[in-house]
Amino acid sequence: MSYISLGYLIIPKLKYFSNRSLSTILLLLWISTTVPGQTSYCNGNRVLGMGIANAQNDSANYPRSISFAKDSAGAQVINLLFTWNTLEASPNVYSPVLLQTANAYYPAQNLKISMNIAPINTNVLCVPSDLDTVPFNSLKMIHRFERLLDTVFANIPNLSLYCLNIGNESDVTLGTNSVAWNQYTTFYDSVLSFVRSNHPGLKLGTTLTWGGLTAPSTIGFGQSLNAGSDIVSLTYYPLNSNFTVKVPSTVPTDFASVVSAYPSTPICFQECGYPTSATCNSSDSLQNLFVYYVFSSWDYYDTKIPFISFFSLTDWSQKDVNSFANYYNLHDPVFLGYLSSLGMRTNPGNGTSKPAFEMLRYQSAIRSCVTGIKVPLQAVQAGFYPNPCKTSANFFFQEPGEHLIEVFDLCGKKWKSQICFGQAEQIILEDLSPGLYLVRISGSLGNSAWVQKLIKLDP
């Protein structure tokens, strides 16, 4: 899935500190027993990105959307995708206005761009009309795309590119057709050589889906296509084949799968998202857990995964959803629910933040080394012990006041909700099944500050 084209620029006093440290250590020990990989918690070379969609009232106020991504969440990179036939609507006639606009705007915002120039966009062939039947490995196709790239670079002299990807989710179109994969690989390898000869040092890749990179039927094709890539780029939406969601706890295994398939090449998540629509069997709570699991897994593969870009900032409007459904020629109600709810903020009016956006802000803030900036965020000074526990857990707070403690399972179902009126509280957990639970501790009632941690309940 992608945002397709740029008709507009889609463009969270006494024993507290010692107990908090213990809780953090226990959490990391738990992760180390469930996710293979690195053990370091934070790596200063990681970069956070964001795909931008506007709230209803922001259609003429793109800078406010950028402020949410950059200043609130700490994003350093913005995703921009241009299809080939958007930039070259007629043979050898180029439309560079969007490129020129990006070149004028993003450098002033101190933002880098993850750019994709797509001859294929998911299930849509995006070449100029006169090339519709021309095979990708033909010199005509290759030379035309090289001329397009010359035009692109000529119009973005000030733009700082984090990376350049050629093609978006091309595996959806290529399927299991070995001839088509071979032709596209020839095209891609030729383009890589052309770009490197003119723009040395730029990180180059091609974006495939997580399934295309890891499924037995296509993993070999993807590995051959990526043999010359500087980065392995992918989109990641943990969905079943009918567009219903997988549980967020699948994230560590999914990360491990792609790292295992590409052990020697940096892996960049160009799109990483999770819908909230009930038609997808999802909810705000599940999206919230998804963001938590992404950051936890990223900590584990910090040296392997330099870049993750969340998609998207805001839900699309119904008008946009309908347009994209027509573009993909796919009108399944579950797919439409997926398209309409990928944002971490809602669309109507000025938009409101879903829990996942606050989770993103919190996880970004406590990893200032991920983004290079510290996001201002009030955190609840709270902790709990023991962890693991059996029948109860003791919660404590640095400041007195009213606090709300909620316990969720890893599918987002709430099992406990209790208000604490002092600086300590005990929650009885003996009626819960053994396993892992997510504990959310909110600040004084009416205050949006919160902290969220995992707790393990032993038999």
What are the main properties of this structure?
alpha/beta, TIM Barrel, Immunoglobulin-like, 2 domains, 8-stranded parallel beta barrel, 4-stranded antiparallel β-sheet, 16 strands, 35% helix
What can you tell me about this protein's structure?
The protein has 459 residues and is an alpha/beta fold. It has two domains: 16-371, Alpha-Beta Barrel (TIM Barrel), CATH 3.20.20; 382-457, Immunoglobulin-like (Sandwich), CATH 2.60.40.3080. It contains 15 helices and 16 strands. It has helices at 16-34, 62-72, 84-87, 97-105, 139-154, 171-174, 178-198, 210-214, 219-225, 251-261, 284-300, 318-328, 333-340, 355-366, 368-371; strands at 47-50, 77-83, 112-121, 124-125, 161-168, 204-209, 232-236, 267-272, 307-310, 382-385, 392-397, 403-409, 414-420, 424-428, 435-442, 450-457. The strands form three sheets. Strands 1-2-3-5-6-7-8-9 form an eight-stranded parallel beta barrel. Helix 5 packs parallel to helix 7 (178-198), helix 11 (284-300) runs parallel beside helix 14 (355-366) and helix 12 (318-328) crosses helix 13 (333-340). The two termini are 42 Å apart. The model is unreliable at 2-43 (pLDDT under 50).
